[in-house]
Amino acid sequence: MAEKRFIYKCVCGESHEGSPNYGFPAPDAFLLQPDSVKAAGAHSRDFCAYQDRHGQRLHFARVALAVPIQGSDDSFLWGLWVQLGLDDYRQYLDAYEQENAKFRFSGWIRNNLPFYPPTDGIPVSVVPRGGRQLASIQVPKFEHRLSADVHEGMEPLWAAKLAASFCLAVNRKIAQSALAQN
Description:
This protein has 182 residues and is of the alpha+beta class.
């Protein structure tokens, strides 16, 4: 059976095909910390830990959320950060390296997804995949647009609007960077 690809016309004037994706560089709260707190913490591509201004030690892992797009075999892919408790964070670090990790952890989304009602703090199940791959997350069913999209699939027009807005933002950033170099 032929694969049903998600294709949309973007604000950049081009048609794009496949799974749109957007990733966050760090947990939102980490980005809001003073430079001194960030410098004293540890932040890599997939992990983040720091002590906030109140002395609380916080631990995060980057994860993937695939939101199905209705009528397509593609998903909208989000690269998010989740907060884990210390014991779960340590276990997750071990599971990250293993092939066939069989753990599940409870965590909380720590990014606000653009164009959604607030998503920071939504409880999730974190499912490591091992082999240095990002864990996936499962969002519970409850009254929220993200939960509805995860469980019922995103409407294609909504997915196209989100993807196009990120394309526009990236193109603006590239243009600003080019202007700054001149």
